[in-house]
Amino acid sequence: MKTLIDCAMKRAKCDLVIKGAQIFNVFTGKTEKGDIAVKNGVIAGIGTGYEGEKVYDAAGLTVLPGFLDAHIHVESSTLSPEAFAQIVCAHGATGIVADPHEIVNVCGVAGAEYIKESFERLRAGGKRPLEVYLQLPSCVPATPFETSGAVIDGKETERELSRELFFGLGEVMNFPAVLAGDEDMLRKLTAAQKLGKVADGHAPALTGDALNAYLCGGMKTDHENISVEECKEKAARGMYVQVRCGSSTNNLKDVVLAADEYNFRRFITCTDDKNARDLSERGHLDDLLRRLVKEGMPAERAVMMATLNVAECYGLKGRGAVAPAYFADLTLVEDMKDFRVRAVFKEGELTAENGKALFSAERYLPKSVLGTVHVKEPSADDFKIPCKSGKLRAIAVSPESTIVTQEEIVTVPVKDGFACLEGTGLCKLAVIERHFASGRTGLGVVKGYGFRGGAIAISVAHDAHNLVVLGDSDEAMTRAVSLLKEAGGGMARVGKDGEEVFPFDIAGLMSSASAEEVIRGTGEITAHAHAMGVTEGIEAFMTLVFLSLAVIPTVRLTDYGLVNVNRFEVVPLEVE
Amino acid sequence: MKTLIDCAMKRAKCDLVIKGAQIFNVFTGKTEKGDIAVKNGVIAGIGTGYEGEKVYDAAGLTVLPGFLDAHIHVESSTLSPEAFAQIVCAHGATGIVADPHEIVNVCGVAGAEYIKESFERLRAGGKRPLEVYLQLPSCVPATPFETSGAVIDGKETERELSRELFFGLGEVMNFPAVLAGDEDMLRKLTAAQKLGKVADGHAPALTGDALNAYLCGGMKTDHENISVEECKEKAARGMYVQVRCGSSTNNLKDVVLAADEYNFRRFITCTDDKNARDLSERGHLDDLLRRLVKEGMPAERAVMMATLNVAECYGLKGRGAVAPAYFADLTLVEDMKDFRVRAVFKEGELTAENGKALFSAERYLPKSVLGTVHVKEPSADDFKIPCKSGKLRAIAVSPESTIVTQEEIVTVPVKDGFACLEGTGLCKLAVIERHFASGRTGLGVVKGYGFRGGAIAISVAHDAHNLVVLGDSDEAMTRAVSLLKEAGGGMARVGKDGEEVFPFDIAGLMSSASAEEVIRGTGEITAHAHAMGVTEGIEAFMTLVFLSLAVIPTVRLTDYGLVNVNRFEVVPLEVE
Questions:
Q1: Is A238 in contact with B196 (Cβ distance < 8 A)?
Q2: Residue B9: closest C-alpha in chain A
Q3: Among B41, B54, B47, residue whose Cα is nearest residue B10
């Protein structure tokens, strides 16, 4: 503290002086010209006449506080935390609230430990390039209708959440349990409350009494806001409304209409799920800011949402502003319209410049996250669908509705007591439990996918991340599963032209390869899959990933079989 | 939590439903109509159709979050904490950040313990009517030129601040020590930082580098803002600027000009020092709001400054808003213009209605705060001023400048080696150490007071609270001191018409009598003192209280003698 004061008083030399920039002030909403003096990673002062060991010429640039992502699943990038960090730091992020929901569903708490430790080991000039606030996932498993790799109940939540490792409780998706006053769920929420840790919400379309009740459970934020009115009501009830701009969802238009001069204090930015290609090509929160401002949000409010508001919501001391005694987490952009990031400082260390991270990222690969695909040797018989009536409940997808599915009764030929899909245009779908090699397999049929001539499979499948395989040939499906078993997870394709696999060696969810390799590799296998007839508008693998997510209407497939989400129960595949 | 959720879902009956009110929403800045459901002191929901054990008809009233005072010295009311609480609760306060700077300068930490415990014992239907966040005073003693009843150095601060008793570190008035990097001061600030406790500021007119340096010491708030530009700069540097409306100081006009649509998030309300009469007759934060809005502040921003902003600044969870899961701390007013308080709820308990507190307030009077005036038996010789040259440095006061004094050299007759003030119109002033009966006495002369025909004395004297006595007769001064010694402190007057004393039995600072008695008693003795010729515009006792405050220019008197504040040193009374 003494050294910092000495630097502020110009009695001592600073470590770094950032000179000649326009500095955006989140407290006033205005930009001011000045130099920023930094000592020991902290801003000593804003003014002129400082001397520094290093001087960074920022003439022509605008200094913003480092961007903060209020909610992100790193796993959704399919990148290692290290490769992920290199990209998001280059795009201006200095902190993220990470919810390792996916990997914890595979590896248990060890998955969370891995995420934290991977980020922790990164160093740019002795500093962590990215501050990671880790949430303990609250819904492992997400539903009772699937087998995940771990179970974290109320008791374990109490124990784990008290660890310093965990900053808060991850998105509480199981809002029906909260509203019902479910004992185990309330045990988790009470633990968060007692520990004074933030619980994140996930309550799409909740309103009125139900929203009040959900808030009584202690949730402070929500990223599921699907209308202007919903954003407004949640903010009015004191929730922090997350402005989300991920790969497949964004609510920017709604936010622009919902946020006003007062309630904008309650809006914070997040990306939730963003894949490697989008992160790399479109960007991270810089992309969000660019688009948000383009949609009509005043730039100063947009920046506050990505900085000060996040810091206030989560109580991140010394973050979210460019001011004395704050950490020198700074993102230098060309302007506050396009938000092109030119340089990023984390605690006074230059971590990225002109789109390139300036820190190396040797992979940390502990055993706990490797070799996580445990399945029995598959055989073609596993995929046979016993059938008498010839009537099956199909999962219908369409380009207009790739996320929300429909249930449709289809009639199929029956041969030797089994459904025969040849010539129907339908595909078989299987979800194979992959954590304990139990052999448990759910079978279903999908209408509208268009795929033919083989099989595709993936080991990313929300939320339990069992193997999902789709095809029109039992043999090809068998082979696709074998490929994933051998690779330890990933994306596989089996066609008449041959077979290929892109491995996700980390928990079957992420690749330890470079971002470039991941983008190229997953891009290629996806293109090849699409060439096998996938209906335009459907994403060969990404749509697959969501076909087992048993919390989104209407019908889904898990290793337990077909789930009617509206009735929240397993239903028979065959209609008798 | 389960019961609360059940109430929100209307499956269970609430404890209380407040019906038919307009509810002001601090998140949106708008007012909405609805009922408020309360269970176990917490708001379960806002809506309609709730059933409650009790129903409170609030038709025609506006519900605001309970008012929060960000900085107050309870002792300045000269009331017991209990009597103080009855008044401020009736005026809409539900929480205060209390800095027991005065009593700790007399009684040490025991004084702080007393303040907290007095409030703690109050109960309205099982609830505390007032939430008290207690700061550990940072400047005991305030200067090296005076004897206070206790010394709290850096080491003791580390120890005390770690106690749950203390919420944070009280106003750091000794800003020169911070700027100089004084070791003992930084030890205190570092302790606050390590413990994550808020340190309050006090840095009048600090700007530029000095302000940056002060912030590097960790101060988060400031109530000393004496210009529009100062308010703006402090807010821009991330400080919470306190809107102050006490008995003798207010910056409402400046705040109205300084606060805008963005920086108003950084403005919070306080009263700092407010005497019993003003509290009782004008009000507390209701008075501040009324005046602030009259000066031109939009009412919605004014209310946010007195509620949400304070809660955010100090991290007061569950306070500062009317929303689900927040404590039911509610102030019901007639409108958002005059802010006439009609009812106050603290955690769902009705604590005041129509200006009257609904809780009793039996005094807690531990030995630690009683009998605190320790002086030797005074004699007229104590007040003789040895003098050869006949030239003395007088403390000059005037109605235009009762707080800031001037130094003026005066010529006086000399008789037997002593100054003789008869017929000069000057008064003698003495400050007598009263904590350890050391007999240490500082002597001075005052010009411009107008007082004649006896003496007045008081045991409230910032910041060390020694006895201050002023008069034109050594005998009367002797008697006045004797009266205070007998009474254990208070206000005393000795005139040709007789003598009187109003005791401050609590630490020589506060009276255990009722507010009515205190207002009447102190009013009477003050009126009698004024009748002894006190210059119009000077307050007989209050001006006296500040004549020993050795941090405000230009010359002051302490038990060490005359202090030149600008030179920050003790200077001789006589000019040779």
A1: no
A2: A209
A3: B47
- Asked if A186 lies within 8 A of B1 by C-beta distance, the reply is yes
Contacts of B208 in chain A (CB under 8 A): 47
**ipTM above 0.90?**
yes
**Reduced to 3 DSSP states, what percent helix, strand and coil does chain A have, rounded to the nearest 5?**
30, 30, 40
CB B58 within 8 A of CB B20: yes
Which residue in A181, A266, A324 is closest to B215 by CB distance?
A324
Q: Rounded to an integer, what distance in angstroms lies between the CA atom of residue B173 and that of residue B140?
A: 10
Could you tell me which of A562, A564, A480, A550 has the C-alpha nearest to residue A143?
A550
N-term to C-term CA, chain A: 76
Other Cβ atoms less than 10 A from the Cβ of B51: the count is 12
Residue whose entry in the numeric block shows the structure tokens 């790193």: A74
The token duo for A187 is 């045990």
Model pLDDT for residues A427-461, shown as the tens digit of each residue: 999 999 999 999 999 999 999 999 999 999 999 99
Alpha helices in B61-204 (DSSP H): 81-90, 101-107, 109-121, 154-161, 175-180, 183-195
CB B522 within 8 A of CB B276: yes
Q: Amino acid letter at A274?
A: K
What residues in A contact B28, CB-CB < 8 Å?
232, 235-236, 260, 262-263
Note the pTM of the prediction, 2 decimals.
Answer: 0.95
Cα separation, B338 vs B290, whole angstroms: 5
What confidence tens digit (pLDDT) does each residue in B543-567 have? 999 999 988 888 999 999 999 988 8
Alpha helices per DSSP H over B96-168: 101-107, 109-121, 154-161
Least Cα separation, residue B4 to chain A (angstroms): 6
| DSSP line for B264-296 | GGGEEEE-BS--HHHHHHT-SHHHHHHHHHHTT
The single residue listed with the structure tokens 């708030």 is: B221
The single residue listed with the structure tokens 């010729």 is B533
Size of interface A-B (CB pairs under 8 A): 172
B259 vs B225: CA distance, rounded Å: 13
Around Cβ B363, how many Cβ atoms within 10 Å? 15
Exposed (0-12), middle (13-18) or buried (19+): which is B437, by Cβ within 10 Å? middle
3-state secondary structure string across A323-377? CCCCECCEEEECCCCCCCEEEEEECCEEEEECCEECCCCCCCCCHHHCCCCCCCC
Strand blocks (E) in A162-266: 168-172, 198-201, 219-222, 240-244
How far, CA to CA in Å, does A232 sit from each of A256, A301, B319? 11, 16, 21
Interchain proximity B212–A47, CB inside 8 Å: yes
Judged by DSSP in three states, B49 sits in coil
Q: Are B10 and B35 in contact (CB under 8 A)?
A: no
pLDDT band at A552 (very low <50, low <70, confident <90, very high): confident
List CB contacts (< 8 A) between B262 and chain A.
27-30, 300, 304
Enumerate the residues of chain A whose CB falls inside 8 A of the CB of residue B190.
1
Q: Which of A6, A10, A209 sits opposite B8 (nearest CB)?
A: A209
